[in-house]
Amino acid sequence: MSTPETSHTVPPHVPSDRIHAFDIYHDPRLMEDLHLGYLALQQAAPELFFTPLNGGHWVATRYELIQAVIRDHERFSNRELEIPKTSSPFRAIPINLDPPEHTPYRIMLMRHFTPAAIAGLEGSMRRWADVLIDRVQNDGQCDFAETLGAGFPVTVFMEMAGMPLERFDEFRDIVTEFFSHVPRERRIELQQQIFREMEALVRARMDRREDDLISRLIDDRVEGRALTMDELLSIMFLLFVAGLDTVANALTMAFHFLAGNPDMQDRLRNNTADIPNFIEESMRRFPITNGVRVVRKDMEFAGAQLKAGDMIVAPMTLAGLDDRRNPDPVRFDIDRRKREHISFSTGPHLCLGHVLARAEMRIFIEVFLARIPRFRLQEGFKPPFRAGIVMALESLPIAWTAPAKA
């Protein structure tokens, strides 16, 4: 029996010179190094190609094409964001909507993620950074990926949203499985579970408001009216899967680089004003998301014939690694004069939380480097990468010289 991974169905409108077998979940090049693996794909495959794996889909490999797919909602729709297609009955507002339907929801949500709103969270962020670092500082080692890389941004977001912090491990298990490569049936089960959890939280806040995002969304208005329960749950589903995973992965990628580059640690420790540029270069060099769209109508694109219903992946991973936009793209250079990436997406679906994400990364790096001396990867470490639509480094054991005991 064929599976999404082994199916080799090629539609008749795909010419043979556009076919290139590539598995976004298990390609050996990605398992060795996610980003260099994608770069090797860019160099080996056509700029736009069709892979028959995972249900069959197109892949764009150059900045201009990736940007066009992500921005052009009239030709490429967000209504289906899974590879292979799940045709799930659940949707995430606003990301599964296209303009103009998407726009009122985005305007409403943006009010909660403005620079001013995020600046008001800085005290809480610094407090949580200290609390979490307190737990490991004297040990001289930790697995950064979950203990700190996820521990910090996920805790900050759960507190902001109004999710119970005592369920941190349980909620993280749900979201990490959701972003792993699971069968369609299991993915829908996980969506159902998340919706149930979010409904319980929303109903609790309907009975008693708190100083949190869930309460504010209940009282918010979109085009002059209150959100329905279905809309609230759909929005909370998106916030759950995004807030509990993506920044954790970006922060872990950044610390993977820092652990192997003590001079960069010293530079950021001594010059905290360089941290924002470091973050931008890290997001360019080590992005973790790949855009997915469904073709809305028959068209010609990049010299190929695409048909309505075709799926297409626009790897934001590859945009910043395109040497046509970023010369010598593999080199990590925080002084890069012209840096181009779309790691937070672009156009109508620019990540709602990009200000929060940048603030979380900036504050945690600053606090960590102020408290922890030079750190390094533990001996024998081989990165366990998770490929797919949202990518991750699942473990990052680091070590440093612990403070002398009194």
Descriptive tags:
406 residues; alpha+beta; Cytochrome p450; five-stranded mixed sheet; three-stranded antiparallel sheet; 16 helices; 14 strands; 11% strand; disordered N terminus
Q: Secondary-structure blueprint of this entry?
A:
Layout: H1 28-32, H2 34-44, E1 48-51, E2 57-60, H3 63-71, E3 76-77, H4 103-110, H5 115-119, H6 122-134, E4 141-143, H7 144-161, H8 168-179, H9 184-207, H10 213-219, E5 221-222, E6 225-226, H11 229-243, H12 246-259, H13 262-270, H14 275-285, E7 291-295, E8 299-301, E9 304-306, E10 311-314, H15 316-319, H16 354-371, E11 375-377, E12 385-386, E13 392-393, E14 397-400
Parallel strand pairs: 2-10
Antiparallel strand pairs: 1-2, 3-7, 4-14, 5-6, 7-10, 8-9, 11-14, 12-13
Helix pairs in contact: 6-7, 6-16, 7-12, 8-9, 9-11, 13-16
Explain what this protein looks like in three dimensions:
The N and C termini lie far apart (64 Å). The strands form five sheets. Strands 1-2-10-7-3 form a five-stranded mixed sheet, covered by helices on one side. Strands 4-14-11 form a three-stranded antiparallel sheet. Helix 6 packs antiparallel against helix 7 and helix 6 packs across helix 16. The N terminus is likely disordered. The protein is α+β, with helices and mostly antiparallel strands and 406 residues long. It has one domain: Cytochrome p450, CATH 1.10.630.10.
